[in-house]
Amino acid sequence: MEICDLTLHSDSMHKDFDLSVYGTAGVPVIVFPEGDSSCTCWENNGMVDAVADLVDAGKVQLFCTDSADDMGWYATSSTAGYRLENLTAFFGFVDEVLVPYVREHAAVDALPVLAGAGSGALDATICMLRWPAEFAGLLALSGTYDARRYVGDLFTDEWAGVSPVDLADALGEDDAAFAGKQLAFVCGTSGTERGLETQRELQEVLGRKDVTATFEYWGQDVTYDWVWWQKEVAQLLPSVVVEGGLEERAHSARVGQAQAVADHTAAVLAAAKDELKNANAALKAARATDKSATARVKSETASVESAQAREAELSAKAAEAWAERDRIAALLAEAQAAGEKAQGAADAARHGRETAEWILGEAEASARKAAGALVDAKVRATNAKTAAKDAEKADADAKAALEAAKA
C-alpha cells in the first residue's frame, strides 16, 4: 500500500493540517479522526488495515486528515465561544481547502465519500448535511449527533450549525440534494455507545425529511471501541462507495433473513414430520402396551384377590397365635413372680446358713481354745501335785534335820 504524507494550511485558523493519503486509485474517502485529532488515527488503530484489501484493490483511496476536535469538541475547559469559533474555522478549512484538494488530486474524478468514527463521525455528518452536493456518501460510526451532548446548557442557536439533528431539522421537505447519496449510520446498542439515542433522533428527523439513509444498530455486545469499528468499516465501506451499494446490502440482508426464515420453517416442517412419524410409532406401541397392560391388570387382580383371601386366613391364625402368646405370657408372669418369691426365700435361707456357719466357726474355735486350756491345766495340776509331794518330803526332811540339830 502506497502512503503519501503532506500538509495543508488553514488561513482562517492560522494552522497547518497534516494529511495522509493511502492508495493510488479508487473512490476518494475523506476520513476524520477520533480522539487525538491526528491524521494517523485510523492507521494507528487498525482501521486502515481493516480496509487494506479495498485500498490494495484500487477500490478506495483514503484521505485521512487532522481535525480541530482537541480545540473544539474535546476542549471542555475552554469557553463555549472559543470552542465554537475553532469548529467553525475547521469546517471552513474542510470546505475551502481540504475538499478542493481531494477533488483535484484524487485518482478518479468522483465525488468523495466522508467517513469517521466517534467525533470523526460527527464531523463527517456535519459536512454531509451542510454541503450534500460536494459528497457521494457518508459512513458514520458511533457518532453523537447532537451538539448539546458536548456543551450542555451552553448550547445556543449558533451551535445549531454544527449540530446534525438541528441541521437535519432545518432541511426542506424531500430535499433533492440527498437523492442517490449513500448515507450509513452504525452503532452498537451497549451502554458504552454514548451517542445511541442521538442516532435514533437523527433517524427520526431524516425520515421526516424523506432523506434516504441506512441506520444499523448492532448487538448489545458491540461497544464504543476500535475493535468494533474495524468490523463495521470493513462491512459497510464497500457498500457506501458503490452506487446502490447500501440498497444492495439491505436487499441482501432481507434475502438472508428470508432465507433464514425459509430454512427455519423447512427445519420445523422436517422436525414436525419426524415427530409425527415418531408419534405414530409411539401410538402403536402404546396401544400394544395398553392391551398387554389390560391383560396383566386382570391377571394381577386375580392374584390380589387370592392374596387378600390368604391374608385374611393368616390374619385369623395370627390373632389366635397372639392370644395364645398373651395367655402364656400371663402364666409366665405368674411363674416369674413365684420364682422371684422362692428365690427371695432361698436367698434368706442361704443368708441364715452362712450366719450359722460363721457362729459355728466361732464356737469351734472357742472349743479348741478351751481344750487347749484343759490340757494345760491338767499338766499344771500334775506338776503342782508333784511339787507338793516334793515340798512335803522336803518339809519332813527339814523338820527331821531340825530335830536332829536340836538334839
Describe, in plain words, how this protein is organized in 3D.
Helix 9 (226-240) runs antiparallel to helix 10 (245-406). The chain has a domain at 3-243: 3-Layer(aba) Sandwich (Rossmann fold). By secondary structure, the protein is of the alpha/beta class. The protein has helices spanning 41-44, 47-50, 52-56, 80-105, 119-130, 148-151, 164-169, 196-208, 226-240, 245-406, and strands spanning 3-10, 15-22, 27-32, 60-65, 113-117, 137-141, 182-187, 214-217. The protein is built from 10 helices and 8 strands. The chain is elongated, with a radius of gyration of 63 Å. Strands 1-2-4-3-5-6-7-8 form an 8-stranded mixed sheet, sandwiched between helices. Helix content is 62%, strand content 12%.
Strand order of the largest sheet: 1-2-4-3-5-6-7-8
Q: What string, H for helix and E for strand, traces the elements in order?
A: EEEHHHEHEHEHHEHEHH
**Strand percentage, roughly?**
5-15%
Q: Note the overall shape.
A: elongated
What is the distance, rounded to the nearest whole angstrom, between the alpha carbons of the first and last residues? 190 Å
What is the structural class? alpha/beta
Mean of residue pLDDT values = 90
Specify the CATH architecture of the domain at 3-243: 3-Layer(aba) Sandwich
Largest sheet features: 8 strands, mixed
How many strand segments?
Answer: 8
Radius of gyration: 63 Å
How many helices? The count is 10
- Spans with pLDDT under 50 lasting ≥5 residues? none
